[in-house]
Every structure is written in structure tokens, then in C-alpha cells.
Design goal:
- It is a single chain.
- This protein is mainly alpha-helical.
- It has one domain.
- It has a two-stranded antiparallel sheet.
- A hairpin with a 2-residue loop joins strand 1 and strand 2.
- Helix 1 runs parallel beside helix 3, helix 2 runs parallel beside helix 4 and helix 4 runs parallel beside helix 6.
- It is flat and about 50 Å long.
Length: about 190
């Protein structure tokens, strides 16, 4: 069951990625950096969300909740894109509103936050916010597209996600190693 859900999510993300990047405009190196980073994060955030459900071992409830959130987010986002036909700022297509990258990223961040708390959700929201920023910097969306995507993704995760009530075996901490910021993950096996 979990393998089927994972394959399903992967296929959806692949379709979205291929649809959103079918035409490339000439971008500056900074714009290309932001676009590429956003493209990586739009795949990484759902993968982290799905992986978190296995780390906390919550009887697949979290996996199902995230799957419902993600599928609903994708369906609403693409339904609105088809109905609204808003031109992208760079003029390449008529599927600008709402931002799919942003909706998927915020659905993932909201799932982590609602399921496991702000301690884990806050960094996920920062990354999701960066994805929205990257879409504006790459001239694919404007602020309204990104805001709508964030609302859709967050809303769907809030509808389908319930808080996880067990004590976590996974701990996060930050520090410095040779003056380099580090993030430490510790998992305690019981």
C-alpha cells in the first residue's frame, strides 16, 4: 500500500514538473539559481513529509493523511489553472494561477507543522516560502499566484491532518562546527 502511494505521488510530481517546465525562457544566473533551487525543494518537501510518517511509525495514519492532502492540493490547483487561464508573467503559458510549486510545498509544510508541531513545521514553512519566492524570481508567477498556492496547500493539509500525539524519538538541534552552522538529527531507538 505504501509503495503504491509513493509511486502515485512520484508520478503526480513528475507530471507537474514536466508541465511547468515545458518552455524555458532565457534567465539570468541568479534567476536560474532560484528556479532550480525551488524545483528541487518542490520534490524534497513532499518526500520529507512522507518520510516523516515512517520515522514516527504512526500506523500509516500520517501517510494516508498526507496523501489525501497532497492529492487534494494537486487536484484543486490544476482545476483552478484550467478554469482561470491566467497568463504567466513571462508569457509562456496560460496556467499561472495558482502556483503549483507553492501549493505542493505549503501542503507539505502544513502537514509537518500540524502533524508534528511548530518545532518541525517552522523550518518547513521557511523552505516552502522560499519555493514561492523562487517562482516569482524565475518570472513564472506573481505574488497573487504564490499567495493562492500557499492558501490552497495549507488549507488542504489543515483539513486532512490530525496532530500526532506520541512522544518523538527524533530530536533536532543546531550548533556550530568549525564556525559552520549545523543541524543535528538524533533518533533514539527504544
Amino acid at each position: 500500500m505504501i509503495k503504491k502511494i509513493s509511486k502515485f505521488i512520484f508520478i503526480f510530481l513528475f507530471i507537474i514538473k514536466s508541465q511547468l517546465s515545458f518552455a524555458q525562457q532565457e534567465l539570468t544566473s541568479t534567476e536560474k539559481f532560484h528556479e532550480t533551487t525551488g524545483d528541487v525543494l518542490v520534490g524534497l518537501l513532499p518526500a520529507l513529509s512522507l518520510t516523516s510518517t515512517f520515522i514516527w511509525k504512526d500506523g500509516q495514519k500520517g501517510t494516508l493523511q498526507f496523501s489525501k492532502s497532497l492529492v487534494s492540493t494537486i487536484a484543486i490547483t490544476w482545476g483552478m489553472k484550467l478554469l482561470i487561464d491566467k497568463e504567466r508573467p513571462n508569457g509562456e503559458s496560460l496556467n499561472s494561477f495558482p502556483s503549483g510549486h507553492t501549493s505542493i510545498s505549503f501542503a507539505s509544510a502544513a502537514f509537518i507543522q500540524k502533524r508534528y508541531g511548530w518545532k518541525y513545521g517552522a523550518p518547513a514553512y521557511v523552505l516552502a516560502g522560499y519555493v514561492g519566492f523562487s517562482r516569482i524570481q524565475a518570472n513564472k508567477h506573481d505574488g497573487w499566484d504564490v499567495l493562492a498556492g500557499a492558501i490552497i496547500g495549507t488549507g488542504m493539509s489543515y483539513i486532512f491532518t490530525k496532530p500526532f500525539d506520541k512522544e518523538s524519538n527524533l530530536k533536532f538541534s543546531t550548533g556550530l562546527l568549525d564556525n559552520t552552522p549545523t543541524l543535528k538529527l538524533t533518533y533514539t531507538f527504544k
